[in-house]
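Example record

One chain of 279 residues, shown exactly as stored in the release files.
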Amino acid sequence: MEAPLVRAYLEALPDVAPDERSIQRVRTCLASLQTPDVRYLVATLLGPRSAAVARVAGAILHAAGAPTATLGRSLGDLRLGDVPIDEGLIGKAGTISASAGYQLAYSAPELGELSRREGVVILALTAFAEASQRVALLLDPPVDPSDPVHAPRPDLVVIGPLDGPGLDRALDLVPKGCPLVIAPMPEAARESAEERITKAGMPALVGGRDYAVVGRDGQLEVLVRGEPYVRVDAVPDLSLDEIATGIAAALALGALGIRMREDWVVAGIAALGAVPVGS
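Predicted structure tokens for this chain:
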């Protein structure tokens, strides 16, 4: 199918909220496509600041030579690096993913019909594999456990500044043994998160404990375990916590097999429009 037909296919799917079978529908379709999401690292980013954190992590990963894609809330939010997905890839991935949707209707009618959101997720995960991406950043700003973005098993979970029920939902979404990065957050919320991750034995980088970004001589100094790691310039439209969490996420993905160097962190932040001291 050409891209316009793919868009028409997606528009024809019901635009409804996720239900208790959404994740199973997507997993069934992905399995019929030989699970394209196993061909790259998957990081799930949770919370309202997930898009900003993804910008930082994605820029650093790109500087490190790791092609990184981002899945937001709609087809228009799909990015390969900082570029929207092109028409040719929409057509190719859409044709493949639509075939899985049609097959679902015949092979597992008890699961019900795909929704538009589910169709976009399947298309995106297929497109990322077709485009030979190294990392996929999947965003869930509202932290919705039933959202189909949670169909793939993540290699890393990044939790933004949350508290109360939102933080509890986010921690519930972390698979056993999966590493996670927790953004800097108020002390009470951080202590609550630390208590849970300690009891569960979760491998975690906790903002304010394991990493931080502080102002130093007009620049931002990244601290890891209290020790200076690298200095970067500030980015006008990003907060210190967003930069810190994005850097921590990139380093955590680096530990999963992506070579990472300090100068690539600097280059990634610079690519976001960092303003050098004295400018």
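Notes: The longest strand covers residues 41-46.
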